[in-house]
Amino acid sequence: MHQKLIDSLNAQLGQIFEGARELPGQKELQQQVRTVVQSTFSRLDLVTRDEFDAQSAVLARTRELVEQLEKRLAELEQGASADSSAAGSSEQAGGNDKPAE
């Protein structure tokens, strides 16, 4: 990907000089610009559009799964607290069933 971009920029730079006569140092200047651009892009953490789209799709699917799991966890927690409330109520009711002395 970086190479395509560098080649494109180099071609655009070449078009700038295309109409003009050959200037002294023109080729060297183009090579220096190419080297600087290559160096700059190598330090950047760039990805292609395809890679970005693929990771976006993975992220969207992961978010969807997390939301489903959060919903399921909330349902389970709600069911567990309802079960413990029911168990607490029956223990209290059972404790009052002792015969009085």
From TrEMBL:
Any Gene Ontology biological process: ubiquinone biosynthetic process
Domain of life: Bacteria
Region (Disordered): 76-101
UniProt pathway annotation: Cofactor biosynthesis; ubiquinone biosynthesis
Location(s) in or outside the cell: Cytoplasm
InterPro entries noted in UniProt: UbiK
Pfam families: BMFP
GO cellular component, as recorded: cytosol
Major location (coarse): cytoplasm
Entry keywords, A to Z: Cytoplasm, Ubiquinone biosynthesis
Low complexity compositional bias, start-end: 77-95
Functional description taken from the UniProt entry: Required for efficient ubiquinone (coenzyme Q) biosynthesis. UbiK is probably an accessory factor of Ubi enzymes and facilitates ubiquinone biosynthesis by acting as an assembly factor, a targeting factor, or both.
Family, as annotated: Belongs to the UbiK family.
Protein name: Ubiquinone biosynthesis accessory factor UbiK
